[in-house]
Amino acid sequence: MIALALLGCHAHLRYEPVAFEVPPLAFDHPMLVGAVRTHLDSGRIPSLARHSPEGPVPLGPDAVASLSDTELYAVFATSGRWSRGAELDLLVPTSRGPEAVSVWVDPGGRVEVAAGTVQPVEPLPPTHVDEARWEREIAEAYDLEGFSGPWSLRELGFVSIALEGLAPNEREALTGVRLARIARSPRRAAEMAWYGPSEVPPRLEVYDAAFDEFGHGFVGPLDRPVPTPVMTLMHEFGHAVVDRPLRDTFEAWRTALEASERMVDPTSFQAAFDRAHELERCYHRLGNDGPVIEAYEAVRGRTRGPTTYGWRSRSHESFAEAFALHHLDPAALRRVMPDVADWFDSDEHVRTGLSGGGCLRPTSP
């Protein structure tokens, strides 16, 4: 019970994607200043500072009024024990449009805040404005199997942003994958997306829930905020990277088995059959996790995940959350899991995946 209580407090360092509604700013400046000062006086917020690259700039009660309305609102909206340890990137609705604000809270509840001056990266459709044509162009450019379902131009724009953010050797993990747009998950209502590695071809499904909360949060630095659907897509791409050695080994096993069935010469048949049997044994030896997850678990240490979802879920979800942050907000990943950030920066996740777990190495005749 004690462990559950501590986990419920979220007192560990983490990145917290904004998956809750941020109501429009409807308070004047004096009211917001008074509300934040009350939290400071009561100890609900132990201390407040303006975030800067050189380090936090402390703000006493008299300096609270120097914060903007959106900064004050974000601090007030995220104060409480639930936010301890978190970094939150909010889009605060105002009469001028949504404004990006980041809030950092350490495990003791001390708060830093900063506001951005730019809007989230907007997905730009091609000049021809033809969904079916753009689907074909994206599939051809990234060697995807294709798209299915009713993708809007805006949603295809999110896919394009996410794919462009991958390194070339990471994109290879998506070769032959089909992206399917479906209204709701057949498993649970709140699910945003799902990667099915056992499908042939592999299938990445994206649901309405992936786009419903777009207006309330962002991911990335304040000078280049990225819409949250891109993090959902990048998360699923991370699953494809994990699955790559398993998928490659399975495909090699199937190809070798089919080749053996076509052999007429007994010696050739036996050699092909032995190779297929060797790949089958190796595939099963990789297990459900595979070499990428094994390497990730070795490097992540006691910090189970970079987000609450990644912390509470199995290692695959933790890796996918870390993979998404590595691409979209590397500073956030480094704040929470510095060793994992170094591991991703060194490209070990790709090299481990390319090795195929040792199954695809050439064998001596």
In angstroms, what separates the terminal alpha carbons? 58 Å
Number of strands: 12
* pLDDT averaged over residues: 87
- What form results from the Cα inertia axes? elongated
Q: What is the N-to-C order of secondary-structure elements (H for helix, E for strand)?
A: HEHEEHEEEHEHHEEEHEEHHHHHHHH
Count structural domains: 3
Radius of gyration: 24 Å
Sheet with the most strands, sense and barrel status: 6 strands, mixed
- Counting copies of identical and different chains, the oligomeric state is single chain
The residue ranges in which pLDDT falls below 50 over 5 or more consecutive positions are 1-9
Number of helical regions? 15
Query: How would you classify the helix and strand content by structural class?
Result: alpha/beta
**Strand share of the residues?**
5-15%
Give, in spatial order, the strands making up the sheet with the most strands: 1-4-5-6-2-3
Kindly state the percentage of residues in helix. Answer: 40-55%
Which helices and strands appear, and what pairs or packs with what?
Elements: H1 2-9, E1 14-15, H2 29-42, E2 48-50, E3 57-58, H3 69-78, E4 86-92, E5 99-105, E6 111-115, H4 131-142, E7 146-148, H5 153-165, H6 168-171, E8 178-181, E9 193-196, E10 203-206, H7 209-212, E11 218-219, E12 226-227, H8 228-262, H9 266-286, H10 290-300, H11 308-312, H12 315-328, H13 330-336, H14 338-345, H15 348-354
Parallel strand pairs: 1-4, 2-6, 7-8, 8-10
Antiparallel strand pairs: 2-3, 4-5, 5-6, 9-10, 11-12
